[in-house]
């Protein structure tokens, strides 16, 4: 049994990761300032006496007494709508929050996992994106607060590995969805689910021919745990390579929800990436991991949660 700190624990991925690691028998310290997270996500975790929670902003000094075997840093603003509204908080959590959590990992001699993103590739000129691709990010662009905070975060992780010999992992996460995403999150699947269930038109931005590749949350959690348990200190893409246009996604959501909603086309946000698809050869070869849940099945698994949120 290990003692593991999870930042961003009240968020979508953080809460599922806490549940999984508790089920695996570990002691979990969850940390979150609830800027975008919701403590209801941790209802199950709170029932476990191996779980404790600290309401703390990870950009401030972090004190945890006793031994810590691993630090998993998931805290961040993660939805384009939220990070556009809170660019400074986003930069701070990617930079200062990563610094503080790395400092803790160094002090405790703990393994460190950083949740980076496909956004380090920006608006990619190669598709699919392998880890060796260096990206196409506008440092002064509208998404830069997120993209550059994660790129800086990766650089800090690398520096702590090289300078202080911290045992590090870097997950480059691609679009992931499932229950526990906020209805007002602004990301495409919560938006489409909410619109389809309430009979409003689905808002497709641009012509809807831009692509994303959507990974169901249980696959993502398996991938993150496989990475943590590996010895791979270089970045690894974790995502589902099943690439879809946003128009295709809209059709699948309508089908899965049985909705009669129409589709409205709205303006494309500036610098919205045109394509995105992970090359997961490295995850397959080095972690023995690949996703198993198809888009239809994953959306089916999620519908009930979105219906409940709407009826609350
Ligand atoms: P989320 O918003 O649901 O969870 C992030 C959590 O971090 C929230 O609970 C929020 O309150 C917390 N947080 C933010 N700033 C904090 C701070 N300063 N101190 C303490 N807590 C803070 O997002 P998510 O989708 O679960 O994403 C988790 C991680 O995975 C993030 O680092 C995100 O960048 C990364 N990621 C997610 C996706 C995805 O598709 N879900 C894709 C790429 C990368
Ligand atoms: N999108 C859309 N309608 C919405 C929300 C998003 O068409 O209501 C599009 C968005 O422009 C992007 C894709 O869906 O092309 C995925 O957006 P999301 O915000 O989920 O994440 P991103 O991959 O851009 O970080």
Poorly predicted segments: none
The strand order across the widest sheet is: 3-2-1-4-5-6-11
**Corresponding CATH architecture of the largest domain:** 3-Layer(aba) Sandwich
CATH topology of the largest domain: Rossmann fold
Total domain count? 2
Number of strands: 13
End-to-end Cα distance: 37 Å
Structural class of the helix and strand makeup? alpha/beta
Shape: globular
User: What value does the average pLDDT take?
Assistant: 97
Order of helices and strands: EHEHEEHHEHEEHEEEHEEHEHH
CATH level 1 name of the largest domain: Alpha Beta
CATH homologous superfamily grouping of the largest domain: NAD(P)-binding Rossmann-like Domain
Count of helical stretches: 10
* % residues in beta strands: 15-25%
The kinds of small molecule bound in this structure are: nicotinamide-adenine-dinucleotide, uridine-5'-diphosphate
Sheet with most strands: 7 strands, parallel
Q: Nearest-angstrom radius of gyration?
A: 19 Å
Helix percent reads 25-40%
Structure in words:
- The relative contact order is 0.14.
- The protein is built from ten helices and 13 strands.
- It is globular.
- A seven-stranded parallel beta sheet has the order 3-2-1-4-5-6-11, with helices on both faces.
- The longest helix has 22 residues, at about 85-110.
- It folds into two domains: about 5-175 and about 215-240 and about 280-290, NAD(P)-binding Rossmann-like Domain (Rossmann fold); about 190-210 and about 245-275 and about 295-310, UDP-galactose 4-epimerase, domain 1, CATH 3.90.25.
- The model has no long low-confidence stretch (mean pLDDT about 95).
- With about 300 residues, it is α/β, with parallel strands linked by helices.
